[in-house]
Amino acid sequence: MYCDRPREECGIFAVYGHEEAAKLAYFGLYALQHRGQESAGIVASDGRQVMEHKAMGLVPEIFDEEILNRLKGRLALGHVRYSTTGSSLLVNAQPFRIQYSGRTLAIAHNGNLVNAREIRGELENAGSIFQTSMDTEVVLHLTAKYIKKGLEQAMVETMNRVKGAYSMVILTEDTLIAARDPNGFRPLCLGRLNSGYVVASETCAFDLVEAEYIRDVEPGEILIINENGLHSLSSGIESRKSHCIFELIYFARPDSTVFGQNVYLFRKKQGELLAEQFPQKADLVMPFPDSGNYAALGYAQASGYPLEMGMIRNHYVGRTFIQPSQSMRDFGVKVKLNPVKELLKDKRVLIMEDSIIRGTTARTRIRTLRKVGAREVHMLVSCPPHRYPCHYGIDFSKSGELIAARKSVEEIRAFIGLDSLGYLSLDNLVKATHIPREDLCLACFDGRYPIAMDTGFEKTCFE
């Protein structure tokens, strides 16, 4: 069964130069849990030995005080994962570690490589043996291949071979290496903690461990962090910036700063621009928590309509092995959100949503609002229709999975059961970012892909 929401990608958190590096990594991953709930792992180094622990599940389910105490050292690298390539198996959990020529290399990666299959075939023909179906392992094998040229040059050579979206951190016994693809699809930032450094996918992780944000890792940049301090070098690849707009729309936590943008204020601005574009008559504005919260706030303040929480979210929904009976249709949707009947009865309801991917969840929720007596139900979406698949690390990889690729806005409105439906225009979406249009990847909306996929590319596992 497909999830009707975009699936989170992955989150990275790394520490250099702290006595309790693994514990800091734990808290960093806790802050980044929204980026992946499938598996998590931490590797740590005491300068001689690299230790690891990883498992399927959520961060607090995987680690405890005893486990973290065993991960000794002043260097640590952590990862939370939702797969965009590779099956949901423990063998594919990251960080991924190998030993080569007397050294240990461990890697954590967020993104998707569009030429991984081609490179993997070359490496296997040359004798490389792969243990997983991850595109991440391709990077590690390439780095090992070039390691005789030195670690820095090995990273440059590797980045000149791989194509696609990637933010990654590599850990050795005594060094951290952070790298970001030349287009800058995925976020990666650098922070300072006392005399050490931290690297993370989002700034919200710095806030939790009280680290000071220094700057973003630049697109195409390689950062080397070791006993000699911080050293920056360029991959030498020239490319235009292509920041993923969906990081701002959906993935990043609202208290993060991504691509120089405060996510909370960006999403609120989306709502303000929707109020300009669609001055819809309504009795109240409401989100489906938590996806539309900040756009709803922006719309309500700009329009003067009251903001209400017409759906209440159950924050204690976890994984369950008890399946509902066939008669309890749509149980997975209903268990998460429940309407406030007295608030919605006989009201003209205007819903703010951040995206419609497949439409099935929205359809169920609108049916619920009708049942409790809402007089009119309107919806505004704080981005344009998703008509094209993403090849760079977001889990809508086939146009057939996208309702807007098959239906017009009017047909989507009818399918979901709305009185009206509107999408934020692409121009207004870009306006909300304060980022030059040419520095954004908008491919899921306009089909203009910054990097072409190699022949035979499939966003599936290699198995």
Offer a quick outline of the entry:
By secondary structure, the chain is α+β, with helices and mostly antiparallel strands. It is 29% helix and 25% strand.
Explained architecture:
It is elongated, with a radius of gyration of 23 Å. The strands form six sheets. It has a seven-stranded antiparallel β-sheet. It is built from 17 helices and 23 strands. The chain has two domains: 242 residues, Glutamine Phosphoribosylpyrophosphate, subunit 1, domain 1, CATH 3.60.20.10; 169 residues, Rossmann fold. It is α+β, with helices and mostly antiparallel strands. Helix 5 crosses helix 6 and helix 9 crosses helix 10.
How many β-strand stretches? 23
Distance between the termini: 21 Å
CATH top level label of the largest domain: Alpha Beta
For CATH, the homologous superfamily of the largest domain is named as Aminohydrolase, N-terminal nucleophile (Ntn) domain
Helix content: 25-40%
Mean pLDDT comes to: 89
**Sheet having the most strands:** 7 strands, antiparallel
Structural class: alpha+beta
Large-scale geometry: elongated
- The CATH architecture name of the largest domain reads 4-Layer Sandwich
Strand content: 25-35%
Q: Domains counted in the coordinates: how many?
A: 2
Give the neighbour order of strands across the main sheet: 3-2-4-1-10-9-11
CATH topology of the largest domain: Glutamine Phosphoribosylpyrophosphate, subunit 1, domain 1
User: What is the gyration radius calculated from CA atoms?
Assistant: 23 Å
- Regions with pLDDT < 50 over 5+ consecutive residues? 319-323, 456-463
What multimeric state do the chains show? single chain
Summed up, the helix count is 17
